[in-house]
Amino acid sequence: MGHRKLKKFAEVASFSNVFQTHLFPEDGIIFPLKGNWKTEYFKNDNPITLELGCGRGEYTVELARRYPKRNFIGMDIKGARLWKGAKQALADNLANVAFVRNRIDFVETYFDAKEVSEIWLPFPDPYPGKEQKRLFAPPFIKRYRNIASGNAIIHLKTDNHELYEYALEQVYANHYPLFCYSEDVYTDIKTLGQERFALLTEIQTYYEKLFLASGSKIHYVEFSI
Ligand SMILES: C[S@@+](CC[C@H](N)C(=O)[O-])C[C@H]1O[C@@H](n2cnc3c(N)ncnc32)[C@H](O)[C@@H]1O
Q1: Domain residues for 150?
Q2: Tens of pLDDT along 101-126?
Q3: 136 lines ligand 1 (CB under 6 A)
Q4: How many domains does the chain have?
Q5: Mapping DSSP to helix (H, G, I), strand (E, B) and coil, where does residue 112 land?
Q6: Spatial CA neighbour of 62 closest among 208, 225, 171
Q7: What is the pTM of this model?
Q8: Which of ligand 1's atoms lies nearest the C-alpha of 54?
């Protein structure tokens, strides 16, 4: 492992806004903030938005800046990526930001029933041929249902057309309420409306910049589970 990555790993372990106790359901250990994020960490009663597979946490940090009356938590397995968002949030004194480092497969060990109000999935890995690993495949949706409030909204942003179509198929097959979808967010302000358009085009993730540079269209699906 490179020196810079090792340095980030060491640094991220010391950040007050990063939780990386690797818990698994079979451990039977209860994560102390599970069910208590608002009272014990954020010290407010504001709704919680999760960014799953957050990478460098661009959505977590920028949404936290734009919506100070909401709380934001990014989750990813890659510590050296989380480092960037966590460092930025600390530098900007964003008290409404936290990060969790573990596999999203274990999201229920960190959040209690109805604790989460909204989920962003920016550019999840498409996992061709491994449908069940996709972050909005049925096993993951089941996990999200166990931690989300009744009307929690999921925002999926992707460059991958197959993934976009798969998401819409899931929505239709399971009769999930569908609020909005777009094949090309950058040319679709009419469908998206001003607020969504701003969130989808003004906040660009690391991967999104790469996809845009290679000429990909950015797709979006917003639904409830
Ligand atoms: C294509 S990257 C996108 C990162 C970031 N959202 C962006 O747009 O730049 C996918 C991210 O999802 C994370 N990821 C994929 N499956 C995961 C899982 N089961 N648990 C935790 N993280 C996962 C990877 O570590 C990676 O950072």
Answers
A1: 3-21+31-224
A2: 999 999 999 999 999 999 999 999 99
A3: no
A4: 1
A5: coil
A6: 208
A7: 0.96
A8: 6
